[in-house]
């Protein structure tokens, strides 16, 4: 792993910015493909050839593969590229030798502009390496898509990240800190028993009665079970603690919120007793705007909308074609379409005969549409909605499920 000494992160990436819109222009394609042929990350003999999951982290402007035991662990200060390759079957259910690919760039909430730009650019380059057959996804830490979460039986979000940038500073040595992990089910988002482990502020105000929390003091581990947490969350937390104690042998104490002894956890987290904590209700740090309980402007009960992007008039424009039930018959291979799936995700469908200007501008227009949604209600988090692009003839299962639903 490259040394972090003397480096501090460059400007933090603002997900509302359109910095990644510059990717995908016509002159990029040959350059990116030739560049992809020399990128060690793509030329390991497995990418595009075998099925499975691969993850890379952007470290000092390079694409660095993660070892298998680190797959599923993400740091909020970093950007990642994730490739899921799978066999594509025929409509009659028979197998083919063709592979389908989902290529994601995941942006941590505190990633830098540099890292976000490299992740986006390199994801497009990866698609070029795969002959343009991949479905590209932009994922944000706060609002991961269902298809992304479903890749991992356990996804862990940690604080910190790899330092990058050009400004030289003296390295600061930080003392070892206590950590608090929030464990909760992602089942309501992906329909399976996957779990999210999210590092949060080690404070009593971070506790929520609906989840399980693991407090690592360094020399002891406390497990605080909220009174409304599920049996599955308790079981998953137990597995996580087991893994932690394999690395270091420390005492573990499991306490229910309803136990009188649970006040010890509050004291360790800086609260004298429960009276100092206003409530044990703290919003989950991801998936809360569109896939959690319906509230605010991001309710999933909103109708799906289909918009067409066209340059027939000499200018790039998008117009509303249909709302409500959307089918594949509503798409036209001469253009690029935006499908807003009830504010759960934004899909861009690229027609095989769409103009080069339309194809090159897909992300720019998708970002512009998201900004339009944001402008309708500044209190919303529309800018966090997952964005994905598919090409006609290479539609992913998730996209096909969306337009058939």
TrEMBL record:
GO terms for cellular component: actin cytoskeleton; cytoplasm. SMART domains: GEL. GO terms for biological process: actin polymerization or depolymerization. Residues 61-149, 194-239 form the Gelsolin-like domain. Residues 287-304 have a biased composition (Polar residues). InterPro entries: ADF-H/Gelsolin-like_dom_sf, Gelsolin-like_dom, Villin/Gelsolin. This is Actin depolymerizing protein. It comes from Basidiobolus meristosporus CBS 931.73. Residues 270-304 are annotated as: Disordered. GO terms for molecular function: actin filament binding.
